[in-house]
């Protein structure tokens, strides 16, 4: 096991936003000898059909790589929207908190040594905010947050996901990121 992970232990829960973002972090953490379990929970993803396509991609990856996968049942879009309503300027922070708090809770309950997230792979996410939120949830739930900047493997992750035939989405997931993708202010 790599020296960087000795403070975290071996059993690690990885929150997964989508299959393509899992490819590189899985490869790195698996090579380092960690016992990984995936956790898919993303109430932010809109519309429902997009949520399901991403879940199917994660399930395909997990099956091919023999990654145990925990899925949060249901589609909790209403709760997500209620949380961010009238706080659009804080939507990313709130979205990270919802998902990382759920991951920390599962990690604590499942007696994992640490948790991490594939959000740390995307060059489009607010990396420092993810790290800060993960560390806050680690403190709250008394479980380690395994921080690693996976952005270094951006190209490699894309190549892996294409070879595996994973669905590759074109926006973060929430209705606001979808709008930003298509709507251009005049």
- What top-tier CATH class fits best? Alpha Beta
CATH architecture: 3-Layer(aba) Sandwich
CA distance, first residue to last residue: 53 Å
Number of domains: 1
User: C-alpha Rg, in Å?
Assistant: 16 Å
Low-confidence stretches: none
Helix content: 40-55%
CATH H-level superfamily:
HUPs
CATH topology: Rossmann fold
The biggest beta sheet is recorded as: 5 strands, parallel
Describe the structure.
The protein contains 7 helices and 5 strands. By secondary structure, the protein is an alpha/beta fold. It has a 5-stranded parallel β-sheet with strand order 3-2-1-4-5, sandwiched between helices. Helix 1 runs parallel beside helix 2 (48-65). The chain is globular. The mean pLDDT is 90.
Present the secondary structure layout.
Layout: E1 11-16, H1 19-31, E2 35-40, H2 48-65, E3 69-71, H3 77-84, H4 91-109, E4 114-117, H5 127-141, E5 144-145, H6 154-164, H7 175-182
Provide a compact summary of the structure.
With 186 residues, the protein is α/β, with parallel strands linked by helices. The protein has helices at residues 19-31, 48-65, 77-84, 91-109, 127-141, 154-164, 175-182; strands at residues 11-16, 35-40, 69-71, 114-117, 144-145.
What distinguishing features does this structure have?
186 residues, alpha/beta, 11% strand, Rossmann fold, 5-stranded parallel beta sheet, 5 strands, 7 helices
């Amino acid at each position: 096991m790599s020296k960087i992970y000795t403070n975290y232990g071996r059993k690690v829960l990885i929150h997964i936003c989508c299959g393509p973002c899992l490819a590189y972090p899985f490869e790195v953490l698996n090579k380092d000898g960690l016992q990984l379990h995936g956790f898919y929970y993303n109430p932010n993803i809109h519309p429902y059909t997009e949520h399901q396509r991403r879940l199917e991609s994660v399930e395909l990856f997990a099956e091919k790589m023999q990654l145990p996968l925990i899925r949060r049942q249901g589609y909790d879009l209403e709760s997500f929207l209620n949380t961010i309503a009238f706080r659009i300027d804080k939507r990313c922070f709130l979205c990270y908190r919802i998902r990382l708090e759920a991951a920390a809770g599962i990690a604590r309950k499942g007696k994992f040594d640490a948790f991490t997230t594939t959000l740390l792979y995307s060059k489009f996410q607010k990396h420092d905010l993810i790290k800060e939120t993960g560390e806050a949830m680690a403190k709250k739930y008394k479980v380690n947050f395994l921080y690693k900047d996976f952005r270094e493997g951006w190209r490699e992750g894309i190549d892996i996901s294409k070879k595996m035939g994973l669905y590759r989405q074109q926006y973060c997931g929430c209705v606001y990121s979808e709008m930003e993708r298509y709507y251009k202010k005049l």
